[in-house]
Each structure stands twice: as structure tokens, then as C-alpha cells.
Model the fold of this input.
Amino acid sequence: MTMEAPRHVAIIMDGNGRWAKGKGFPRTVGHAKGAQNLEDMIYVADDLGIKYLTVYAFSTENWKRSEDEVTALMNLFRQYLKNGFKKAAKRNVRIRVIGYREGLPQDMQDLSDEIEEFSKNNTGLQFQIAINYGSRDEITRAVRKIAGEVKEGVLNPEDITEDTVTSHLYTADIPDPDLLIRTSGEQRLSNYLLWQLAYTEFYYTDTHWPAFDKAELEKAIEWYHTRDRRYGNAK
Done:
């Protein structure tokens, strides 16, 4: 592929369970396959020239799933974060965990802190994984912080701007996504990056996440370049 990749791609990785069901496997097998595919796709995104990759791994609503499934997912995330140190060192990837971290088990909070500290000076792909993330929750927490600053006299209400809100989000120092990809045929945002996706192009594919590969990502990028993006400072 010769065309330039979008600077920031966000992905809702959907369809692990349906992929597994279609092959006669338990849902947990689908999640494991999806985690492995994410590992592969980080390298693909890096090779294609994407600068920022943000993926939706576990929402604030996902705690409602069965205890067995949640436990399996948390174990996958633990292993993924542990393996992240090698990935960060090998490919110069900066890894960040976005979401309500205090709602995660303590060992996962610690792993998140450690991988962020370990990779903070890396200048390659900037990779964000959203765990225990919900956009309404994110915005609510941002509003609380802003209200606290107003109460303390640090901030005047009339000085609150869109930039003020942006600076209080988990993605404060990350550019908004240019392209959102949702796999598995669903066409909704599912409480993901609601503020950040204001001017993002949405691409939907019927391919389940475990089967989403380089060719599928290139297809999404090719579609992105057919869009006439006229907004703000876009050129």
C-alpha cells in the first residue's frame, strides 16, 4: 500500500465471541485469539505508518458479563501487559492504559503504571489500550475535576473552553482519531471516545476481530482516503 496512513486509528475490537461460536469454541478461546491478533496488528499498524493506535479492550459495562468470562479477560490483560515490556523495547512502542484504573485489580493497576513508566520515552507507535473505559464515565470525571478547580478558585467558569475539557480526558495529549474501525458488523459507538470522535470517519466491517488482518486494515485505509474531509483545519 503506497497511500499515507491516517495519523490516529481507533478500533472497537468486536466479534471475538461470535468468531469462537462459529468455529465451535468457547467464547474464551475467541478472546485469546483476539488478544493474539492485537499483538500482530500493533506491528502491522506500525509498519503502515500509523502514529497512534487506540483500541477498546474492556468497557465499564463489560463487568456485567459472566464471572468466568470477566476473569478470563482480566487474565489475558495481565499477560498482555506483562508481555508489553518486550514489545515496547523491541519496537520502540509507547504503551498507555486509558480508563478508570482505580476500578481494576491492584496488580493490574501496578502493571499499567510500570509499563507506562518503562515506555514513556519511546518515540515509535503510540499505543493506547482502553481497559475499564467508558466515555460517559470519562467525561463525568473530567467535569468533576473542572468543577473542583472552579471551587478552589484555580479556574474561572468563563474561562472553560473545549480545550479545557480535552485537557482533563484520559487522551489529553493524544490527537483525536482520524479513523474509527469497528469489526463484526455492529454500527454503534458503545460508549467509546464520544468526545474525541467528533470529526472522525467511521468504518464498519463484517469481519470478526480475530480474523481482521493487514489486508482488512489496508482496505479501511483505502476507504478513508475516499472521504472528503472538510472540517476545522483539515486540508
Notes: Strands lie at 8-12, 52-59, 94-98, 126-133, 179-182, 201-204. The CA atoms of residues 58 and 131 lie 5 Å apart. The longest helix spans residues 67-91.
